Amino acid sequence: MDEVRIRDDYIKLGQALKLAGLVESGVDAKFVIQDGQVQVNGCVETQRGKKLVENDEVRYGDNTFVIRSKG
Predict the structure, then answer these.
(1) Across residues 52-64, what is the average pLDDT?
(2) What is the mean pLDDT of the chain?
(3) Residue 70 — pLDDT band, cuts 50, 70, 90?
(4) Strand-strand pairing, 63-69 and 2-6
(5) Is 57 within 8 Å of 66 (Cβ atoms)?
(6) Would you state the pLDDT for residue 1?
(7) Coil, helix or strand for 33?
(8) Which of 8, 14, 40, 59 is the most exposed place for a label (fewest CB within 10 A)?
(9) Is residue 7 within a helix (H) or strand (E), and if so which, with residue range?
(10) Residue 6 CB neighbours (<10 A)
Protein backbone atom coordinates (compact mmCIF):
# COMPACT_ATOMS: atom_id res chain seq x y z
CA MET A 1 0.00 0.00 0.00
CA ASP A 2 1.27 3.44 -0.88
CA GLU A 3 1.77 6.21 1.62
CA VAL A 4 1.20 9.95 1.40
CA ARG A 5 3.38 11.86 3.84
CA ILE A 6 2.04 15.08 5.32
CA ARG A 7 3.88 17.73 7.31
CA ASP A 8 0.83 19.23 9.04
CA ASP A 9 -1.75 17.62 11.33
CA TYR A 10 -4.09 16.97 8.40
CA ILE A 11 -4.53 17.22 4.65
CA LYS A 12 -7.75 17.74 2.74
CA LEU A 13 -9.00 14.85 0.62
CA GLY A 14 -8.71 16.70 -2.70
CA GLN A 15 -5.13 17.71 -1.92
CA ALA A 16 -4.24 14.16 -0.91
CA LEU A 17 -5.50 12.76 -4.21
CA LYS A 18 -3.32 15.27 -6.08
CA LEU A 19 -0.30 14.57 -3.88
CA ALA A 20 -0.73 10.83 -4.49
CA GLY A 21 -0.74 11.50 -8.24
CA LEU A 22 -4.20 10.02 -8.75
CA VAL A 23 -5.72 13.19 -10.22
CA GLU A 24 -4.11 16.03 -12.12
CA SER A 25 -5.99 18.98 -10.65
CA GLY A 26 -8.31 20.12 -7.92
CA VAL A 27 -11.13 20.16 -10.45
CA ASP A 28 -10.52 16.49 -11.29
CA ALA A 29 -10.48 15.69 -7.57
CA LYS A 30 -13.75 17.56 -7.07
CA PHE A 31 -15.54 15.51 -9.73
CA VAL A 32 -14.33 12.05 -8.67
CA ILE A 33 -15.15 12.83 -5.04
CA GLN A 34 -18.60 14.25 -5.82
CA ASP A 35 -19.32 11.21 -8.01
CA GLY A 36 -18.77 8.93 -5.02
CA GLN A 37 -15.67 7.26 -6.48
CA VAL A 38 -13.49 7.83 -3.39
CA GLN A 39 -13.61 5.98 -0.09
CA VAL A 40 -12.04 7.05 3.20
CA ASN A 41 -11.63 4.30 5.77
CA GLY A 42 -14.03 2.09 3.82
CA CYS A 43 -16.86 4.64 3.49
CA VAL A 44 -17.76 6.69 0.41
CA GLU A 45 -16.72 10.31 0.99
CA THR A 46 -18.24 13.15 -1.03
CA GLN A 47 -16.62 16.11 0.72
CA ARG A 48 -13.53 17.37 -1.06
CA GLY A 49 -12.53 19.29 2.07
CA LYS A 50 -12.69 16.22 4.34
CA LYS A 51 -9.70 16.45 6.69
CA LEU A 52 -7.51 13.36 6.62
CA VAL A 53 -5.18 12.56 9.49
CA GLU A 54 -2.48 9.98 10.12
CA ASN A 55 -3.52 6.37 9.37
CA ASP A 56 -6.59 7.36 7.32
CA GLU A 57 -6.89 5.06 4.31
CA VAL A 58 -8.05 6.39 0.94
CA ARG A 59 -9.22 4.26 -1.98
CA TYR A 60 -9.84 5.49 -5.51
CA GLY A 61 -10.31 2.90 -8.23
CA ASP A 62 -7.61 0.25 -7.87
CA ASN A 63 -5.41 2.60 -5.86
CA THR A 64 -5.18 2.71 -2.09
CA PHE A 65 -2.94 4.88 0.06
CA VAL A 66 -2.61 5.71 3.73
CA ILE A 67 -1.82 9.07 5.32
CA ARG A 68 1.44 9.22 7.27
CA SER A 69 3.00 12.04 9.24
CA LYS A 70 6.52 13.17 8.36
CA GLY A 71 7.17 13.82 12.04
Answers:
(1) 97
(2) 96
(3) confident
(4) parallel
(5) yes
(6) 79
(7) helix
(8) 8
(9) none
(10) 19
